[in-house]
Amino acid sequence: IAGITQAPTSQILAAGRRMTLRCTQDMRHNAMYWYRQDLGLGLRLIHYSNTAGTTGKGEVPDGYSVSRANTDDFPLTLASAVPSQTSVYFCASSNSRTDTQYFGPGTRLTVL
Amino acid sequence: AQSVTQLDSQVPVFEEAPVELRCNYSSSVSVYLFWYVQYPNQGLQLLLKYLSGSTLVKGINGFEAEFNKSQTSFHLRKPSVHISDTAEYFCAVSGANTGFQKLVFGTGTRLLVSP
Question: I need a surface site. Which of A32, A44, B49, B60 has the fewest CB within 10 A?
């Protein structure tokens, strides 16, 4: 069982470019999440999805969009990247509100 | 809404010494509480969680935490740490009344274990 995979592992991106971070889980979890991790700020929720076909905004959604066409995939798109979006991005999934959230290995994104 | 405070950004400790990492939360509703660990260049892993019942929760790798509702705390403890426990530890809270698990994380505590 692979769990959660994220791609790419790292990326350097010019400001203004569009970028999609990929996330795939093989645990058939209903819920999926995107977080960004910044030094001194911990992890902050960007967007979430309770089930395929539905998405919601987290704490810091501006500049990001997501889709959930099926159970396994939850891509995060930066339509026009800005330097403040330089961060490490983690995808996670869980099966219920009491369940453990399982995290992917992260994508390190640098926007210049 | 919920919030979490981890007052200690870094905790240095010698190997085999006990350690306590502090976590306080704020919430107007009942909560679920979690501790996650992040080893260098990795994602987060669950150490333990409190959902209900016994206030003393035991997790993996010899860690335990105690839920104290009156003090709104969920401190993490280990009686004897190892070098391999060097990592960043995150406390997180989720409102028990939400339809899904919306975790709010603290800013993290870096545990540095030296020989």
Answer: B60
